[in-house]
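FAQ: What does a ligand-bound record look like?

Like this one, built around adenosine-5'-diphosphate:
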Amino acid sequence: MAKMQFKSESKRLLDLMINSIYTHKEIFLREIISNASDAIDKLSFIALTDDKLGMTRADFKIEIKADKDNRTLTISDNGIGMDCDDLENNLGTIASSGSFKFKQELSEKEEQQDDIDIIGQFGVGFYSAFMVAKEITVITKKYGSDTAYKWNSAGADGYEIEECEKDTLGTDIIITLKDNTDEENYDEFLEQYRISALVKKYSDYIRYPILMEMTKSRVKEETKDSDKPEYEDYTEIETLNSMVPIWQRPKKDVKQEEYDRFYSEKFMAMDKPIKTIVTSVEGVVTYKALLFIPSSTPYDYYTKEYKKGLQLYSSGVLITENCEELVPEHFRFVKGIVDTADLSLNISREMLQHDRHLLTIAQNLEKKIQRELTAMLNSDRENYEKFFKAFGRQLKYGVVSDYGMHKDELQDLLLFYSSTEKKLVTLSEYVDRMKEEQKFIYFATGENAAAIDALPQTELLRSKGFEILYCTEDVDEFTLQSLMSYKEKKFCSATNDDLGIENDEAPAEEKDSSALLTFVKETLGDKVAEVTASKKLVSHPVCLTAKGGISFEMEKYFNSVQPDSGMKAQRVLELNLSHSAVKTMESLIQTDIDKARKYAEVLYCQALLIAGLPLENPSEYTDLVCSLM
Ligand code: ADP
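The answer part, i.e. the structure of the complex:
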């Protein structure tokens, strides 16, 4: 049969594996065993409903054989197996999740050193066997198929597939080890004590027995009582793993490193969990859950590729990789496993959605996650802020979505940057230090903290010593709008026309500014809804504030997602009557009305610029300024 070529990305990964100088090549065994276990998961799920298969849970196993004469290591499973297409698609290309992600990371980091770190941090799948193999043969027969296939590859120059004989379902992976070199001794992977130690180290929790024929030594029966006992070899099949999944073990017996390793292997994660939640519940529903909160945002988190959900087991049988119903949208960053005996084993995926037990578990888990996050916020602020940096945006979306249904649950988990504290604060911390005369919780919106620092609208608030929360993400303002109030204090934007305070320093010369205000309004026409004498400006001549429900930030947001939305905030131009520029304009009304009109236009444009809104006609504006110079 003709040699087939690996797809180019696969080839790249393959080259990397073959030439790897990575020191922990041993992880290949974990990868192969993990694939075997996944394959058995699939067949054992089918076995629940297909009686013809005649297999029960107790029949499933993984076997390891070391052949020192031929220098081969064989890992066999009686799982689902692969057909010709599967071999093509799964072993010939990098379609699989783990390897694909690996590749993505690779293109970001080209350095060899980084490649090595990546191999170490999470599994790289089947291909990792090429770190120790000079040739790999896969003999496999798939459930539902009469034909068995043999896949063979000696590495970079491609692979072959042909039909072959195999009686039972499942897969044998036959690894012919590389020749020993001065630096590397590959023979170690044929030693039973070494294999046994590797299984204990990396694959202990695999829920199917991993069996190996062990050669042992014993005193010959007939020489037992003699002075010179003689020894003989005998073989015995041993189960190398304890088969207790990590989530079934009491928390106190498991080291954090073990949880970390499990997390990164199971979920292909590059980071360490910032929080590991272990919970065991007995009662109306009985279940064990092992949940992880990642410490960094997965690269695909805000894309359609990202799938939320927990792995669901029913008494140790994997029911589904991604049970979405188990985590609410606002905690969709949580990864983990739920194992319960309360589900009927042959429940269909459609029925899962309506299962009462599952619903109860989901509700419990939601509360648990919320409590754990609150505890982290209260007792481990540094890590909480790290978490919030990664997933705060998700919590804010959570407040906004479902008509604000989750706001009570989420509002105390939010953090905003504070103008006075110069760091992230909670709403509760804000309200606790509010000044007595302060009516509202103030916030200001802008690109970044520096831009908000420079907003003239915040001058009065600052001069009063009122704290301002900074909204720098597009979802921030919607979040506060959805909350409406916190502990009975309403939120108020610094660009609102009414800040609920009087500016004592503002001169009481409001005597008759109506002529000036009318003049400016007439000059600007429909560009502004209103022109007022400002109560909040101190050193700046003008600012724009919004009247009615729509703020400038909302206008910007809606116009960015839907350019023809026509969404427009009602603009109020506030004039600082004691500012010299405004005074000059006022006197010009009498002496040079054309010039006064130009002043009004320029001031309006300045107000737009400061509000971060586009000028309607930038060149007109520059002409205007030049004509006054
Ligand atoms: P991953 O395990 O991350 O998907 P791998 O490269 O390890 O990536 O495996 C690729 C695919 O090959 C698996 O997803 C699976 O479909 C198939 N495969 C590998 N080993 C086996 C096996 N022992 N039995 C059945 N299918 C297997």
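Follow-up question: can I read anything off the structure? Yes, for example: The first strand starts at residue 62 and ends at 67.
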